[in-house]
Amino acid sequence: MSKSVRAASLALLAGAVLATAAPQVHAQQIATQASVKTSSKLGLGRPALPEEIKAWDTDVRADGKGLPPGKGTVKQGDALFQERCASCHGEFGEGAGRWPVLAGGAGTLTADRPDKTIGSFWPDLSTAFDYIKRAMPYGNARSLTDDEVYAIVAYLLSMNDIVKDENFELNDKNFTSIKMPNATAFFDDDRETSEKQFWKKDPCMKDCRSAPKVTGRAISVDVTPDSKAGPKVD
Length: 234
What we know:
Cytochrome Bc1 Complex, Chain D, domain 2, mainly alpha
C-alpha cells in the first residue's frame, strides 16, 4: 500500500472515530452544564458560624441599632484618651501634626477653611462610636472594649462642650438622647423628588441648551502665567 493511500485511510478512520465521539462529548457537556445550572451550591467553603458573623457585625446606626451593652464616663474616657489617642489627636483633641482634629471648630463651617470636627460637623454620635470601635487606635484596631469605647466617646462629647459634667456616663440606654450641634444641617437624600423633573426616558443629546456665557477669564484674575515657560523650582 502506498504512503498516500495509507495516509488517506488513516484520515478517514480518524474522522470516523471523531464523528462517533463528538456526539458523546457534546452530550456530556450538556449534562454538566445542566447540573451546574440546577445546583444551588458550588461546593466551596462553608456557611459562616453565628459567632463569626457576630464578630464582624459591629456597625452602629444613627438610631442606635447595633449598639452593644456598655457604659463609660467622661473621667474614664479622659484617662483612656491620654493613653491611647493623644499621641495622634492631641491632649485636647486639637490634633498632633497632620493627624485629625477632633474638637473645636464651632461656627467655622461657613469659613473658607472650616474645621470639621466631631462637635462642629458630624450629625450623629453613632459615627464616632462605630469608627472608633472598628478602626481605633491606629495600628491596634479593635483592641478597645465596648466600655472603653463608650468612655472615649463620652470624653469627646466633653471636649466639644456637648456634655459639661466630667462624671457624665454614656451608655447604650442614653446614647440616642445625645443631640449633635450640627444635626439639623443634614437632610435625607431627596433627589427622587427634587430632581425628578430631570429624569427622562429619552434624554436630550443635542442642542439641549444655549451656549454658556463667559463671565470671566483666568488671566484677568492673575492665575494664568503670561509666559509659556513655567516658574523655576529650586
